[in-house]
Amino acid sequence: MVVLTDIGPADVEPDDNESAVRLLSYADRFEIEAICTTIGWNCDPYPPEWAEYLYRVIDAYSIDVENLMKRSGQSGFRSLEAERGSQELGYWPSAEYIRERSVPGSPRAGIGVIGDDNDSPGSELLIRLADEDDPRPIWVCSWGGANTLAQAIWRVRQERSPEELKAFLRKFRLYTITDQDMHFSMRMDRSYSSHQWLRREFSEDLMLVWDESAWLNQNSLGVRNWDKYAELIQGLGEMGKVYPHYLWGVEGDTPSFLNVMPNGLNDPEHPEQVGWGGCHQFGISPDGETYAWTNWQQPLKDLSSKYEHKFYPDEFNDFAARMQWASEGRGNVNPEVLVTVNPSSRPAPSSYKPVELSAKAGSTLSFDASRSFDPDGDALRFEWWFQEFPDGSVLPEISCADSAQAIVVIPDDAAGRRFHLVCEVHDDGPFSLVSYRRIIITVI
Length: 444
What we know:
β15 and β16 form a beta hairpin. The strands form three sheets. An eight-stranded mixed sheet has the order 3-2-1-4-5-6-8-7. The chain has a four-stranded antiparallel sheet with strand order 9-11-14-13, with no helix packed on it. A four-stranded mixed sheet has the order 10-16-15-12, with no helix packed on it. By secondary structure, it is α/β, with parallel strands linked by helices. The two termini are 37 Å apart. It has two domains: 2-328, Ribonucleoside hydrolase-like (Inosine-uridine Nucleoside N-ribohydrolase, Chain A, Alpha-Beta Complex); 340-443, Immunoglobulins (Immunoglobulin-like, Sandwich). The chain is built from 13 helices and 16 strands.
């Protein structure tokens, strides 16, 4: 993961401070390759002294990580040289590593500044990351403008062959919180933004997700539930002490990395799968000219919003549980979901990837999640549901949807369709933490 943030003073950009605290409370769930300070709606050019606010969060993490590591039994850090290599899921990186990867990105906004004078340590680092011998994609989570990535792409386009440019582009996935590569007052002038250039020139090779639902709900639901943040987030651990009061909304940038949260709910390589960062479909973007994965149009916007409201309590509780770990070095952990399909099969191994299977139209399928377990020994509660899609098509019925074992009857006329069944499992420990497993059924 790479984060592009316009983090700044609490009276200007408190939401980036908030999202930075949440991100580092989940530093074991992502490999944070870079955090680049860069432009946003309220800062063009980006004041370099604002980076201080990012380092305040990292300094707080350097203290809290000692408690956070107790969550997974980690006793220490690898050498900095080893941390620069691949980090497996569950590893808490050192604050030294995160400081090293926190660099300035492009300080100015818009397509007009892209060119020879716009290189930055951030754009140069992006190029180095893409050139590493690592098959994994790089998720760029844009909390402000994505000008830093646009500059890296421009530079590669100047210096490499068209085939090499394609390979470079295909290394990246970009999730933007709306379009912030401009001042807020001119936010409807999409032609000013480098984001439009990215969509127009590279949509065949660069996966670009433009969210216009999850971030708005994250903001408004946070404001509505602010008393819980004041009680369960602010002041807990050192990171809680630097978690500021909201100004515009609460953590509007957080959905960018919730989208790639490995909790079993969605595969971010398929933006149509709903997750904690919303759901999207490929189509015309809000500028009416270019294409992206987005959710600004109906009926998808309402559908995405429906799920964002559904997930919000669990998403918040998950964060609150981690802040308890940061503060106290103890707390609850999430259950593990194991699913068996039909009695004769083995349970799918514990994983965050969807289970895929084929079924005949008119057939009956049984699903068994009774081998799921909670590492703390907490009791489990089950819920099975099918994801709705904007086409409004009828979904199969689920028998025993609130038990460990569920039965699904595939409709007789469903040949050629795909259904997405989700097994949602809560424990009964503090904050009632959740995990998921998605099962994709292709009807033949």
